[in-house]
Amino acid sequence: MSALRLLCCLLMACCLSEGKRIKGSRGSVTDPEAAVRPQEPRLSGSVFRLFLGGEDTCMLDPLQLHTLTSCGFNSSNPLIIITHGWSVDGMLESWVIRMAAILKRNLVDVNVVMTDWLHLAHQHYPLAVQSTRTVGKDIAHLLQSLQREYRYPVRKVHLIGYSLGAHISGFAGSFLQGSEKIGRITGLDPAGPLFEGMSPTDRLSPDDAEFVDAIHTFTHERLGLSVGIKQAVAHYDFYPNGGDFQPGCNFHNIYEHISEYGILGFEQTVKCAHERSVHLFMDSLLNEDKQSTAYRCSDNSAFVRGVCLDCRKNRCNTLGYNIKKVRTARSKKLYLKTRSRMPYKLYHYQFRIQFVNQTEEIKPTLIISLQGTEAESGELFITIDEGIHGNTTLSFLITLDKDLGELMMLKLSWEVSEMWKNVWTRMQSIFPWGGQRSKPQMMLGKISVKAGETQDRTSFCSMNNDGQQIEVSQDKVFVRCREDEPTRRRRKHSRLVEKNESVQQTK
Ligand SMILES: *[C@@H]1O[C@H](CO)[C@@H](O)[C@H](O)[C@H]1NC(C)=O
Ligand SMILES: *[C@@H]1O[C@H](CO)[C@@H](O)[C@H](O)[C@H]1NC(C)=O
Ligand SMILES: *[C@@H]1O[C@H](CO)[C@@H](O)[C@H](O)[C@H]1NC(C)=O
Ligand SMILES: *[C@@H]1O[C@H](CO)[C@@H](O)[C@H](O)[C@H]1NC(C)=O
Q1: Would you call 448 a catalytic residue per the annotation?
Q2: Eight-state DSSP code of residue 472
Q3: Which of 361, 391, 393, 442 to mutate to test the pocket of ligand 3 (most atoms within 8 A of CB)?
Q4: Ligand 1 atom closest to Cα of 109?
Q5: Is 200 helix (H, G, I), strand (E, B) or coil?
Q6: How far is the CA of 465 from the centre of ligand 3 (A)?
Q7: 3 state DSSP class of 341
Q8: 163 Ramachandran zone, left/alpha/beta (phi>0; psi -120 to 50)
Q9: Which of 188, 191, 246, 424 is a Cys-bridge partner for 273, taking CB atoms 3.0 to 4.6 Å apart?
Q10: Is 116 a catalytic site residue?
């Protein structure tokens, strides 16, 4: 047994020595001897590194502040501190350096520092959690030294923390004494286990900085636990794709990954959705022209009904670095859909279709295509699960990876299952006198589409004024209602006359 354990330790040490940035040995609950090791110069042992460029960093010593200047810290510039999360393999994940490089490249006059707390993070999860306050305190000490020595205002500090790093950043904020708060904290999928449901002082919370934002990407719950925290912890909490899971990280891949890569495959898949928060944040810096908008909503099921695409009174905001920093009294939950890869931006459209006097309950499948001044949507298949009966207004959300521009035309067709088609065909042959009328029809009322990104709502009217009814399998074309053109709004009266005439002409 002990031989086996020794072998394990050796194996582990071998693997770990391949890592570039590792310090100290790995202590763990099952292996208490390993915890006995030469002490780090500081008790807690967080290490701060100023990012210089490429792979180069310079170690800062908060106790010897002259190291800051010699490293090239510029106290007239803002400071961003990136803090990593729990570590399974004891290595710094590659996104940390990448994020630092992107921040430095985009913002130029900025100090980017990375918190390295790997030897505490590379422990069993509960132990790593216990260290989060300590590491938070280390960051607070660093900031206090800066305040003292350089009169550095902490409101120029932006802490970015991933997973456990998000809560560390929160603790750093709450440890700072004095009236001035940290400027901003961004929590990237803040860790869930042992933080969910805790009081605001025991996790990242809006009190920890002037402005706090969080991106929740992996809150999918299993056995009552989720990797990322579900509850709102910031002023603005973003839940891309509902927050529980992310496109392109599909679960059926888990088994493929595990069979191919063993348990590391599992880790990759778990990391996919968790780490998506990081990539969404980077995306906001890398694709300036493709900023993702998110919309305030009570929950994701309301969001996918399309009813939340409203930007009045700061109900929407920009995901990532360029967020509008509006302080709010209560946490706001914002939702959006994204693509499965960078650039993640999608354009959101809410459809509202009114059904009038529907005598039989139907669950139609609609095939819709939209044409705008910039692009066409292509065919979109909408399956409606809720039965439509009587007068119903249906609302649903469509997302597209391109901006259609001003909406001009909508093509709609109504498909039913083959079985129903057969029934209707048979009915027609039994009751031939029914003629055209026995073909099932739907009567549509108002049709409108709202684009979330532009906040424009467009109403559609049938093209030839031939009424709003639509038959099975008929391709019906609707165009932007004339009243809808803002430039012509003032000439409304003359247009009505025009319309009246055209109706008479068709008679
Ligand atoms: C610090 O940054 C500012 C720009 O924000 C620049 O003008 C100044 O020269 C920099 N100082 C040093 C010592 O590099
Ligand atoms: C709907 O049915 C009512 C009677 O139930 C009728 O008065 C009304 O004209 C119908 N409306 C349309 C748009 O067909
Ligand atoms: C549906 O709306 C129409 C007017 O658009 C109205 O005449 C009709 O009575 C309504 N039917 C029901 C069942 O409410
Ligand atoms: C439409 O035409 C009718 C005559 O057919 C007329 O009485 C009515 O006033 C016209 N409506 C408008 C809005 O001009």
Answers
A1: no
A2: B
A3: 391
A4: 5
A5: helix
A6: 21
A7: coil
A8: left
A9: 246
A10: no
Q: Is 61 labeled as ligand-binding?
A: no
Active site residue 226: no
Cβ of residue 77 lying under 6 Å from some atom of ligand 1: yes
Residue-wise pLDDT for 462-486, tens only, equals: 887 677 778 777 888 999 988 655 5
Enter the pTM of the model. 0.81
Residues in the chain: 507
- Give nearest CA residue, ligand 3 atom 9: 357
DSSP-derived secondary structure letter, 228: B
Ligand nearest the Cα of residue 444 is 2
The residue assigned the tokens 């290490």 is 47
Q: Which ligand is nearest to the CA of 500?
A: 4
Q: Which domains does the chain have, with CATH numbers?
A: 45-334 (3.40.50.1820), 346-426+438-478 (2.60.60.20)
Q: What distance separates the 2 farthest-apart alpha carbons in the chain? A: 97
From residue 200, alpha-carbon distances to 195, 206, 361, 421 in Å are 9, 8, 49, 58
Antiparallel, parallel or unpaired: β 475-480 and 407-415: antiparallel
CB atoms within 10 A of CB 179: 5
CA angle, 79 then 82 then 87, to 5°: 165
Residue owning tokens 């589409």: 449
Q: What are phi and psi of 504, to 5 degrees?
A: -70, -35
Catalytic residue among 25, 46, 167, 189: 189
Condensed to tens digits (0 to 9), the pLDDT of residues 3-52 reads 333 223 322 332 333 333 333 333 333 333 333 333 334 456 799 999 99
- The position carrying tokens 């998110």 is 294
